[in-house]
Amino acid sequence: MRKEIAAFSALALFGVSGAPRHVEQSAQQTVKPSQPAGQAAAQTKQTAAQTEKTAAASAASAAVMPANAAKLANPVKPTAASIAAGKQMYGYDCAMCHGANGSGKGDLAADMKLTLKDYREPASLKDMTDGEMFYIIQKGKGDMTGEGNRQKPDGIWNMINYLRSLSKKTQAHAK
Helix, strand or coil for residue 141? Predict the structure, then answer.
């Protein structure tokens, strides 16, 4: 029994990298022996190009927002309680990229060299509907992963209320 556990542990630790070199090479080799080298290289390039096109097409289709999503209205009133709940969720899920105060200068954004909107600026969200914001927060966009089913819709609406409040606070301080 101990020998079986030791053997399993060794396989788990070394996995494929512990496999003999000729096994790895034969698994990676897709060229038929009768196929000329130039033809094999062309086939490899063609396959890579097709894979790249497929990935780009799926990314583009994922980025397309349904027309009805933009038309959604926020059913949650922007009360102090709603904004506080949105701020709490923002702190857990968003501040690492978007900054603790909405500046767009979070630690993770800096590490990833991302340029994000400053939500304290009124112009940053001026052209976005609440429905568009809801869709992006729920589904994600670009490098941003969405909340998906981790957050209830009211929680996302609360966060939208919080995000909208950030620019209003900046306007109030400017007066």
Answer: strand
Q: What is the DSSP letter of 129?
A: -
- Cβ contact 155:82 at 8 Å: no
pLDDT tops 60 at residue 140: yes
**Above pLDDT 70, what percent of the chain?**
60
Distances (CA, A) of 43 to 27, 32, 111, 167: 17, 11, 37, 54
Domain boundaries, the chain: 2-63, 69-174
Angle between helices 153-174 and 130-139 (to 10 degrees): 120
Spacing of C-alpha 111 from chain mean position: 15
Q: How many angstroms separate the CA atoms of 27 and 24, rounded?
A: 5
Q: Against a cut of 0.85, is the pTM above it?
A: no
Q: Give the tens place of pLDDT for each residue, 84-122.
A: 999 999 999 999 999 999 999 999 999 999 999 999 999
CATH of domain 69-174: 1.10.760.10
